[in-house]
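Note to self: user wants both folds in one dump. Writing first protein now.
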Amino acid sequence: MLGRPRHLAAVATFAAAALIATAASAQKKYDPGASDTEIRIGNIMPYSGPASSYGVIGKSEEAFFKMINAEGGIGGRKINFITYDDAYSPPKAIEQARKLVESDEVLLIFQPLGTPSNSAIMKYMNAKKVPQLFVASGGTKFGDPKNFPWTMGFQPNYQSEGRIYAKYIIDHFPNSKIAVFWQNDDAGKDQFKGLKDGLGDKINMIIADKSYEVSDPSIDSQIVALHDSGADIFFSWAAPKGSAQAIRKVGELGWKPKFFLANTATSVASVLKPAGLEYSKGIISTAYLKDPTDPTWDKDPAVLKWRAFMDKYYPDGDKTNANNLYGYVESEAMVQVLKQCGDNLTRDNVMKQAANLKNFHSELMLPGIMINTSPDDYFPIEQMQLMKFNGEAWELFGDVITGEVGHDATR
């Protein structure tokens, strides 16, 4: 009789311990790519090919995750960042996405770069229900949660950017004639659509446009034709290489239009210097991040911290290249999502948390610009500020502007 209570007590203790263990394991949920010790993140970048100047973004992200791991990881888990080259080729992007999902078994693909590449992998990623998160493209199609719930962009979408320029032109240069140079893919078409929609009943201000293929060795004939149109406003919506060629050719022709440049091609290091700083003076674009070449931010604590990060984790990286800062900010947002996931590291919860960012702000963003998402709003950043190049650095002007693109713009 005396032994029985002890036996019951032992059973009760064992049962309680089992319950605690079960509760603890129930709190932790993992999909492929996540465990108690690791989070595997995939990435696709054009390290080679016509858009290779963007490759530094992948390198800066790799360096960022090295820093996170050195500081203990996220919830004790180290980031295993697996990044592949697609040479800005859609078929290659599909091949690399399959490899990351089916062979490397990553939890998600983060920041795959380029509108054509992301367009190519989008159906696959959604069929597999693997997050295609914070796509490195302003393509409006990447903010369509109804049809593609596993795909989300990050930066301001191209149609918003086009509308912001249109508003500025109508307000300041209503009698101008516009010539547009655009990339013949979804990115260029999206940007051009934003400009046309923004101009509305003033669309006849556009008197000429010429497209180019990103693989074209020269774009001189298109620029000459646009120059000959008699336009006094010129738009360049092109990848960095094409933009640099356009700036140089406009300068060599002695043409002095009001020059607007896509914000994906504003890097002083990889676009304006190769084009010629003397030809770049006066160009207008948009920004949502602090520019490391702008003297305004020389003593800014966040920029100083970023420079220290570059020195320690990416010492051969160019601190005048804004793409390196962009990669850092994207990675900060990725870490925020993973922190919100806690121990529920399922693909479904990754997307749930990515769609639940509330007034998240990186200190490397311009003041007043916030990241906000919801289950029916997959456009994290919808605000920008205009800026002008003074021959040495970009100077911000005007107020922060919200691009007004309806969520039906993806269709």
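First done. Writing the second protein, which came from a different request thread.
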Amino acid sequence: MTETWLIAGLGNPGPGYSRNRHNVGQMVLDELAARVGGSFKTHKARAQILEGRLGPGGPRVVLAKPLSYMNVSGGPVSGLATFYSVDPAHVVVVHDEIDIPFNTVKLKLGGGEGGHNGLRDISKALATKDYLRVRVGVGRPQGRMDTADYVLRDFSTTEKKDLPFLVDEAADAVELLVRDGLTVAQQKFHPAKA
């Protein structure tokens, strides 16, 4: 396996955002980094990166946390894809998703951005929508709360109890995706319809 995968976890920089729903992608990257072993270092493409392998003899990966704000994630992701010669088909973006319930992980290739400005910026910078997404469900806000306010808040007390399991599951999904492909990963993580 000589193919390199670029796995980008989306979020906003700085400690004030670190536990927000919008930063769940970066939480997943921290879990993957713990599995790879090592620590992130700053790259000139405005991202923190960690190079390694997912599991013994596993695929070579570049784990990346853009240092830009969410809505301008495209520059760092595109810059790293160019630097490491990674085709968009081997780019995996891990991000929060309001259109699926909390505690749910779904995977897809391409498609729309669903109003997610980070994804929109990445699609523009890569000049394609055909990259892989690991969508980590954060659910929709209750009542009339603005969606932007909702994703920039920390998880609720109840959600925080399950958050480590959600992050772990999303990291498992990334590993399975790069090791065995999208179809196998979707079969495992998408519940069968009754």
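Dump finished. Worth passing along: The longest helix spans residues 157-180.
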